[in-house]
Specification:
The structure holds two protein chains of two kinds. Chain A is 25% helix and 24% strand. Chain A is built from 19 helices and 32 strands. In chain A, strand 23 and strand 24 form a beta hairpin. The longest helix of chain A is centred in the C-terminal third of the chain and has 28 residues. The longest helix of chain B has 15 residues. Classes of the chains: A alpha+beta, B alpha+beta. The interface between A and B is large, with 57 and 54 residues.
């Protein structure tokens, strides 16, 4: 039975709610600055070219133009993983790569100036997918990596960063298997998370090396860290987070737009704003990873996995920022969902001449799972097993474990999620509906129904460090100093609720500082689902520390020991004799009671989400409708029920479930241009077609922090896409492997229209390289 | 507006404005969109620009009782129009929120909040025009408002709650 709390678990309006519904809340582009200049980026029309010559003269003569920068004007500032990507280079690597930066007195003038810059290119051959990038003799994007394969590992995950999974003896495992399946499966439609607010930054540079930065970001403190390295460790950066209009993981990758604003401010000594247009947002900012596996899985008749081996190919576009980290997390997440004694899963991070892929909700795990589960489905079909039972059986249990991002093995000390899975299955009616593989649950004329299930779990709930201060004030309020921006999850209010619960004062009496690195201690950012456990722990620990100091301060005044005291509603009292009390006013206006809290990473637990879907496929038109979705999870303790509901409903958004049906970024592989970089041609779900969603949330206490809760928001999008593939295959009685399942793919599978001769999943390149 | 006209008059959130048309910094230029004028000239930044292309509904305002996309309307075309933006919904004297705004708060009908002003203005126009809209009509009225957090379900609940309370 869950503990009784005053604020935790109660629906308390978000602190920012009034400002949101009145339009008063300020996002980046709403901020006003004196003397502001507007920055724009000249982008390459070629996918791969050397810049021979740039003539800025005409553009510089345009009235209102204050600065134009090209690679020749700036030092060798670099970012990316590895750090090989110059902020401005003499080579462009995708259609849209930055060639020059302009600052002008209005965005119209800056735009006009872009048209007046003359650039001479030497066009180079380009590669647009994994196959062509890995062909022997393929053009290389980077001289440092002539085979277009980036080195594994990322420095922030430590020297032994997980680069793949090797465990046990796969040969032995396959010998023990009753069924073995093998093949190549991909999730290569590079959908876009597409937050409504675009990406941008405003920078103000001051002599000799100070920069103040306001940005569309999810993680202002990490921006400071990243930019420190980009600018060769010479800049003193104050990073200020602004209320963020959606991120879904993408806006931790804003170092380029931030660098542009900083460089232009350095050049003009004025504040400069660079905000991408929606087209730039969609064609020149983070996409999902393109993922493909060539793998083999062994399974016993009872669904026990015996061996998993193969290679995961990840196409990261023209550079990587977080891709190796996503490979590490994705690999660990696969171990969480597929407990198996024998592994040999390698990977290659491949660069191609298209816009970059990177950090997005699902963070490698969604991409790998969407490729792996179709392979697992073939094994389950062969063994005649119910996928719900197999997924439930193989998800990590308390006696299990996994390798995580730092390369270490972790014994799992979380809860058994089987109960949540079973409850979800019951609410969905899985047992009644499941008719076997490739069998529809119902047929009504042209309309065939099918069901599918997917699962995902992430041990990032306790990743990275977080720090916070809590200051107690004599007016019976508290101030939480934390570098957290609100990006939609309600996290800031949730942190206030946790502090309020510890201090036993109402959350309205907790104020939060802005996310300002000059004011707050370190906080990594609300990535993954770490907000509740990792960030929450820092806030809780700071509140407990402050509370302890308060009681120590009051003890002599009350003639008692600190441990004999408690505080509630701004009054400190003796527990056994509550009449003996003093108000927080005794702190006085000349004293600061400040608590400090820190969270150290803990990878021993994960969250879990299982998603059941029912689809209806029109076998005449190929159109798919999602009829019903049931998400099931166990969060230990709900912090905010309405916020949680929103997070789970989000399974349909940010390149989630719909990436199985209609969401895709369409790349013209002849020219490298993205053909649907606008909100009309990129398909998105509207209120006109909303499936029924039911969210099942259990509360089995976790051994996390004092409220026994863990976060779950990030993973809502991840189990759905492969579940849709399964459901559609079952509905039409044919295997469908390719995302998104647009109507033509249904009709091709049913033999109603002819298939393309060219097989997009050609394995020639792999064979040629002996991989 | 005829070609010779040098000024336009608008009523925005109950206040009257007269703008000069021209190329100077303080004037409304013929190519300025209504969303630009609202945000950059009047500092009414509650109206959001997302796609700036008429596809996403973030810039929705109410013009003469109808929900319109302010990124697709030139300000010079708005002479004589009455416009309400998200800032104009609360009671100007008491500061009391509109019923829809209250219900959006109660139902947590937003996540990042960027689409919310547009959602509320589309809902407001529907409620002004239709006494008892069905759920389908609500969904239809909101179908031009893009939300990637998927606040849709909670938005629909909030709009229905406002309808119930109005009855």
């Amino acid at each position: 039975m869950a503990e009784m709390f005053s604020y935790i678990g109660k629906p308390i309006p978000r602190k920012d709610s009034k400002d949101i519904v009145t339009g008063e809340i300020k996002y980046l582009d709403d901020l006003k600055f004196q003397n502001l200049l507007y920055g724009k980026v000249l982008r390459s029309p070629h996918a791969h070219a050397k810049i021979k010559k740039v003539n800025k003269e005409k553009a510089l003569n345009l009235k209102g133009v204050k600065a134009i920068l090209t690679w020749e004007d700036i030092p060798d500032f670099r970012g990316g993983t590895p750090r090989i990507v110059r902020v401005l280079d003499n080579k462009v690597r995708y259609v849209g790569d930055a060639v020059a930066l302009v600052a002008a007195t209005s965005s119209e003038i800056a735009e006009e100036a872009l048209n007046l810059i003359e650039v001479e290119y030497e066009v180079l051959p380009a590669v647009f997918d994994i196959d062509s990038a890995l062909k022997p003799g393929a053009p290389a994007l980077y001289d440092e990596y002539p085979d277009n394969i980036l080195p594994g590992g990322t420095i922030i995950y430590g020297p032994n960063c997980l680069k793949g999974v090797t465990r046990g003896d796969v040969e032995k495992g396959f010998r023990e298997a009753d069924v073995i399946t093998e093949g190549t499966f991909g999730y290569e439609n590079i959908p876009n998370a597409l937050p409504p607010e675009t990406v941008g930054a405003i920078a103000l540079w001051e002599e000799p090396n100070k920069v103040t930065l306001w940005a569309t970001t999810q993680a202002p403190y990490m921006d400071k860290v990243t930019l420190f390295h980009v600018f060769n460790r010479q800049l003193d950066i104050r990073s200020i987070g602004v209320h963020c209009g959606g991120s879904f993981g993408t806006k931790i990758m804003c170092w380029q737009v931030q660098s542009y604003a900083i460089l232009l401010s350095m050049a003009t000594k004025r504040p400069v704003k660079v905000v991408f247009t929606k087209e730039e947002h969609m064609a020149n900012f983070t996409l999902r990873l393109s993922s493909r596996i060539n793998a083999k899985v062994g399974m016993k008749k009872d669904g026990t996995l015996t061996a998993i081996s193969g290679t995961w190919y990840v196409d990261t576009g023209y550079y990587s920022f977080t891709t190796q980290a996503q490979v590490a997390i994705g690999s660990g997440e696969l171990m969480i969902m597929a407990q198996c004694p024998n592994w040999d899963l390698k990977n290659y991070v491949v660069v191609t001449n298209r816009n970059a892929s990177g950090s997005i909700r699902g963070f490698g795990g969604q991409e790998l799972k969407c490729s792996f589960i179709p392979l697992l489905c073939l094994a389950m079909e062969k063994a005649g097993l119910d996928p719900f039972e197999v997924l439930k059986k193989n998800f990590v249990k308390p006696q299990g474990g996994y390798y995580w991002r730092d390369g270490n093995w972790y014994n799992f000390r979380g809860i058994d999620f089987s109960k949540a899975m079973e409850e979800g299955a019951k609410r969905f009616g899985w047992k009644e509906k499941w008719k076997g593989w490739l069998k529809p649950t119902a047929i009504n004329g042209n309309k065939h129904r099918g069901i599918g299930v997917g699962v995902h779990g992430n041990a990032d709930i306790g990743e990275d460090t977080a720090e916070a201060y809590v200051q107690l004030n004599y007016n019976k309020t508290a101030t939480l100093f934390i570098c957290a921006v609100e990006h939609g999850t309600g996290q800031k209010t949730n942190l206030a609720k946790m502090v309020a619960e510890v201090l036993k004062i109402h959350p309205d009496n907790i104020r939060l500082t802005p996310a300002d690195t000059l004011v707050t201690p370190f906080e990594f950012g609300p990535v993954g689902s770490r907000g509740t456990y990792a960030i929450g722990s820092a806030a809780i620990n700071a509140a407990e520390d402050a509370r302890q100091k308060l009681l120590e301060f009051a003890a002599p005044k009350l003639g008692a020991k600190p441990e004999e005291l408690d505080t509630k509603d701004g009054v400190i009292f003796v527990k056994n004799d509550p009449k003996k009390s003093i108000s927080w006013r005794a702190i006085g206006n000349d004293r600061t009671i400040l608590g400090f809290g820190r969270f150290e990473p803990d990878y021993t637990m994960c969250n879990c989400m299982m998603t059941f879907v029912e689809v209806e496929v029109d076998v005449e038109t190929g159109k798919i409708d999602i009829i019903r979705i049931v998400n099931t999870t166990d969060v230990g303790q709900v912090i905010d029920p309405l916020g949680l509901e929103g997070q789970l409903n989000a399974c349909l958004g940010s390149a989630g479930i719909d990436s199985a049906i209609f969401e895709e970024t369409v790349l013209d592989k002849r020219t490298g241009h993205i053909l649907n970089a606008n909100l009309i041609d990129y398909k998105w779900r509207t209120t006109a077609e909303l499936p029924e969603i039911e969210n099942v949330v259990l509360e089995t206490p976790f051994p996390s922090h004092r409220f026994h809760a863990v976060g779950v928001g990030e993973i809502a999008t991840s189990p759905g896409p492969s579940a849709i593939l399964m459901a559609v295959s079952n509905a039409i009685g044919r295997w469908i492997y390719e995302y998104p399942i647009t109507p033509d793919k249904i009709l091709k599978a049913l033999g109603k229209i002819s298939s393309n001769k060219f097989d997009t999943h050609s394995n020639e390149a792999f064979k040629a390289m002996g991989r | 507006m005829n070609n010779k006209q040098k000024t336009i008059n608008l009523k925005i959130n109950g206040e009257f404005y007269e703008f000069e048309i021209g190329e100077k910094d303080w004037q409304i230029r013929p190519h300025h969109t209504l969303s630009h004028t609202l945000r950059e000239i009047l500092n009414l930044t509650g109206t959001k620009i997302s796609c700036d292309d008429g596809a996403c509904g973030a810039c929705t305002v109410i013009m003469d009782g109808k929900a319109v996309l302010s990124c697709l309307i030139l300000t010079v075309e708005c002479d004589g129009k009455e416009i309400t933006t998200i800032e104009g919904l609360k009671d100007p004297k008491t500061g009391e929120l509109d019923l829809l705004q209250k219900k959006f708060i109660e139902h947590n009908a937003f996540q990042c909040g960027f689409c919310t002003p547009g959602m509320i203005m589309s809902s407001k126009a529907l409620l002004e025009k239709t006494q008892h809209p069905t759920e389908e009509e609500i969904k239809e009225a909101l179908s031009g408002n893009f939300c990637r957090c998927i606040s849709y379900y909670q938005v629909i609940k909030a709009v229905k709650a406002a309808l119930n309370e109005r009855r």
